[in-house]
Sequence to fold (674 residues):
Amino acid sequence: MTRIDRKFEELKAAGKKAFVSYIMAGDPDYDTSLEIVKGLPAAGVDIIELGLPFTDPMADGPTIQLAGQRALAAGMTLNRTLELAAAFRETDDTTPIVLMGYYNPVYSHGVDKFLADAKAAGIDGLIIVDLPPEEDSELCIPAQAAGLNFIRLATPTTDNKRLPKVMENTSGFIYYVSVTGITGAAEAEAGDVGPEVARIQAAGDLPVIVGFGINTPEKSEAIAKVADGAVVGSAIVSKIAEGQPVDQVLAFVKTLSDGAHRA
Amino acid sequence: MNDLFNSFMTGPDENGRFGDFGGRFVSETLMPLILDLEAEYEKAKTDDSFWAEMDDLWKHYVGRPSPLYHAERLTEALGGAKIYLKRDELNHTGAHKINNVLGQILLARRMGKTRIIAETGAGQHGVATATVCARFGLKCIVYMGAHDVERQAPNVFRMRLLGAEVVPVTSGRGTLKDAMNDALRDWVTNVRDTFYCIGTVAGPHPYPAMVRDFQSIIGKETREQLQEHEGEGRLPDTIIAAIGGGSNAMGLFFPFLDDKDVNIIGVEAGGKGVDMKMEHCASLTGGRPGVLHGNRTYLLQDDDGQILEGFSISAGLDYPGIGPEHAWLHEIGRAQYVSITDKEALEAFQFCCQQEGIIPALEPSHALAHVMKIAPDLPKDHIIVMNMCGRGDKDIFTVAKHLGFDMAESD
Fold:
């Protein structure tokens, strides 16, 4: 059982929905982002998604792209990202960390070495956007064998015929992408998302967390109501981009998590 | 590793792999779309009516077959191998790009897609896509790096004349790879009505195989035409083409892959020299395997797996990757890959103008520069076929700048 599995059991017992936040590791620099990450659990974050910077984030909108560029410009790498996770782990041994990014930095590092290093750094799960089920042998299967959750995206284009394939080797939770599009673009509508989440919940027993297009406490609450939790990324990253101080960023995160926890 | 008893022409496998290269590294949103495309392409491939329509358009709209021309003066000046040029620069729109675009647009029509998106570097693929979209009355959006929009102004104007919307891409560093990222972002957003017309033999399966199949008309014609010149059964001894993503090269090479006596050479853009870090676009000679834009292939990247920008005088070769089939042919040793610097390409460009009265694009000038290197030492009965994949009209401004010729003042 991973920290992710334990977290969902805990939330279920408390009758609460999950709030998941995304920030880019190393944005705007290593120290600031570590300080933010360390403050996330107290701001009500149940699961931390940590972005792994990549030069060519094809599924991300401008907000996350620029965050990645800032991090890379400040010297962030995969190794430094794992160091950041390990530094967080020294202060918190229960909040799950999911590393989210693209495959090339992982492939370049070497899959086996990456899995060992990620595990040692206290990473609990992976979301690798450009690894669909068709490429499961690359990282998904080895990751599960190494005791890391491999969390898959399901999208509005994932029809019922395809859904079992998407669910098959997924663990931890399913990340439902609420809109066809990139991060931070269109707005998610609870009315559209609800039936889709129900469809995916019915297809398996994993929690379904919804992300993309959630940017306010109200939206966070509305989406969490119709799912097992909500993810917010671009809206938080925007605050960091504006140069807001860490405590203000965390105060904003708290409003979002309160929204989800009200649901 | 394959041995020569096996065919080199059976790839990719059902997972879109050429050996370890290729594949389908895309987000879940796009996955159902590329599976649909694959199914539709498999249907079209064996449908005579599809190919009849292609043949008709190739003949009457593009002007195929393009000539296979014996470059007598070039041959004489180099004093060795007999040189033929496959004249794909004479195609409508001035390059080989339209061979592939026609195929993809016919597929898009079959799939009921009404909105076509494309990425472009030098603008040749963008112009070809805008052209065919105009021909069929389809909406066309072309993503082009902001930097390329500036240096390829004539092609930007051409695309707009043809009714396309040209979107300057400022994300990343504003080059071809960023244009491809933005095209993928568009596609992931507009999945229902949009067809992504990729301009080279890269991207997720089935694009590398599909684009290769459409471009293979180049090699098929060459095979027949050389026999008309040289007698039945005569094959070229060496075939050469320039490579950015590698579609014109794959088109020439593919029909000859199983003719083991045909020597195959791909020429990458060496920029200022392959030993100069980040100052070239030679993915095979200066990169290593990685995953980008839906496929595993050789990429220019740093130690952390971050993608590097290429550098070349030729915007059409300015891409940090290469088609996965080339990566495979390189690894198994069926084709040889070399690089040519900007300076060598510029010299070949001028030599071709003077010797043959043909103004080549900067891309095939790289291939020609390699021909100039090897032809003098080869016997006179050694036949080289080089793909003249594009004409140089689009490049005269760049070349003038490098030769110190002021276009503004000399009217």
